[in-house]
Amino acid sequence: MGDIAINLVGDAEPDHTDWLLQLRASVAVDIAEGRQVDMVLSDLATAITKRIHRCSAAILTLESNDTPKVRASTTPPEIDRLMHGAQRRNWFGSWSAAITRQSEVVVSEIAASSLYREHSARFVEHGLLAARAKALRGRHNLVAGALIVYLQDPRVLDDHELDIFDEVSDLAALAIRRDQHIREYLDRIRHDPLTGLENRDGLEDHLRAALAASPADQPTIGLLFVDIDDLTLVNDSLGHTVGDTVIATTAARIRDQLMRSDTVVRFGGDEFIVVLEGIQSVTDARSVAERIRRAIGEPIDVSGTTLSTTVSIGITLGRRGTPALQLIDEGHAAVVRAKQDGRGSTAVHDRVLDTGAGERMDREQLLRQAVSDDEFVVFWQPKVNLSTGKIAGAEALVRWEHPTLGIVGPDQFIATAERAGLIDKLSDWVLNQAIYEAKSMTQVRPDFSVAINLSATQLARKDIHDVITSALDANSLPAENVIIELTESILANKSVVECLHELKRGGVRIAIDDFGTGYSSLAYVQQLPVGIVKVDRAFLEGLQPDGTGAPILSAAVAMAQALNMSTTVEGIETAEQLSGLRTLKVDWGQGYFFAEPGPKEALLRQLNDDASW
What CA–CA distance (Å, rounded) separates 281 from 346? Predict the structure, then answer.
């Protein structure tokens, strides 16, 4: 609070009426000066704790999905965790009743109250024996949260304490209403009124935050630059009202194809930018782009006139350290090239490799030469059996060992290889090399499994089954030692699913990679020849050693186990995460905690040393 409020929580004790007046004046100044609402609420929680005998306090607000968020608290952290983020079916206590009844709730003895039935022992353990809660009303007179006071004696508040409680609740509600008003105002500024999408104002900040939060070892942010073809012609011939309908319909259809973690903004009159989080390959981004293109291509009926709309899409990928504006510029450059290829086209940005001399290289020719000169290598990332702590297999990852640039990741050359018609040749090399090298691993550990990533393009090849079986026969490697990993979006391709059934009949195991970031569900996956679910690293966040704190991860693992599927979790970086996964009985794990991807020799050393975690 301001200068006046310093004495509210200090040693000085102004009389009751003066204290309330000073509190009211101080909060009014804070709100007028635009002080952050969490700071105001924190001071209010502290003030009431200092002023009411032997108590602690918490102020929570309801988020848009009815999830309580503890905004300020002097209660023990364990109590805060019980309230914060609780799903509605798990609400409890006086605050829950106050919000539900939209009133004030008094509990004179927590140990005897049915409101605290499941958690009373924890409250008593922390010396919290009684409680009083009041619903806080926000904008439009809707309940926006609650003030809760926990007392260390089984009693009710006296008259003076009730005055303080009521004053703090009124001031907290005032601060929350002001915050909601500001948020609504900013929301109107940042959203396009025609489509309801965010506009470009917040795009750079959103991109920068997403890039900063992404893993450093691989591209995980995809950007699609979507441009409606020939909208000017629609406006000129049918009028801007029809053009606006096309824009609004296009926006809605893009949004329908995205995951909750993805974002779409209206970048300009006929332009949209889609930010995809958790994208790890151009193939994944292309799959999303294709879904968007097909959805938008469905006819639009405008007052009896049927229109067929197409879009041109530019694709680029980013990773941590990529400037946000650079990613937008690359997407724009890609969509310009897509338009040059004709209506309804898609193009991938071709980021030029820099040799250090600043010369622009012909990447296609460079790749052709690299394939001819055998410049590619397989890197291996161990997969650990979490029940034994031993290496059970490894994922094969292709790298370009450039003579001057050193090791180059696949995000820098796969798109060019696809465009140059080199992807089949490169894929065949990776398959054969990985299986060849895996043979030496099985000599150390017979049940060693090699996991190989294949894209929809590769699996759609008519000869892919023969390529895999020939490689297995040439190296005398049993099919059971091979796991084919593919992303969820690939499962929409009928020919790919047929290929997977054929491979499974031959003994090859099938895994869904990055489960939870695509468009399928386990209910759908169980109908396919899939035996392994590989859960994306994003869902590890918050996982505790006792297996709590990551509900989506826990749910995915539990569902997979119920369907008799094996589970793998990637991105393990800490001992705490490892403990949590063992508690959840996850089968296998990958991540930097065990080892970074490296050459065959490094993996063989670990196998021979019988490394264990």
Answer: 15
Inter-residue contact 549 to 543 (CB < 8 Å) = yes
Tokens encoding 185: 């105002």
416 neighbors 408 (Cβ within 8 angstroms): no
155/110 Cα distance (integer angstroms): 10
Helix, strand, or coil (residue 355): coil
For 126, the token pair is 């922390």
The pair of three-digit structure tokens given for residue 169, joined into one six-digit string: 């609740």
Assigned token pair, 159:
């008259």
- pTM equals 0.46
Cβ-count burial 467-480 (b if 16+ within 10 Å, e if not): bbbebbeebebebe
Question: Do β-strands 566-569 and 532-535 pair in parallel, antiparallel, or remain unpaired?
Answer: parallel
In Å, what is the CA distance from 135 to each residue of 99, 216, 367?
5, 44, 65
Domain boundaries defined on the chain: 4-190, 198-348, 363-534+596-606
Give 506-563 pLDDT, tens digit per residue. 999 999 886 654 445 555 566 678 899 888 777 888 899 999 988 888 888 888 888 8
Which one-letter amino acid corresponds to residue 218? Q
Residue 311, classed as helix, strand or coil, is strand
Fold classification of 363-534+596-606 is TIM Barrel (3.20.20)
CATH of domain 4-190: 3.30.450.40
Report the pLDDT value the prediction gives residue 9, as an integer from 0 to 100.
Answer: 42
Looking at residue 439, its pLDDT comes to 92
Q: How many helices (H) and strands (E) does the chain have?
A: 21, 22
> In this predicted model, what pLDDT tens digit does every residue of 112-127 receive, in sequence order?
999 999 999 999 999 9
Class of 198-348 in CATH:
alpha beta
Query: Mean pLDDT score of the chain, rounded to an integer?
Result: 85
DSSP E strands: which ranges in 403-496? Answer: 406-408, 449-453, 482-487
As a whole-number percent, the residues of the chain with pLDDT over 70 amount to 89
Which band of pLDDT confidence, cut at 50, 70 and 90, is reported for residue 188? Answer: low
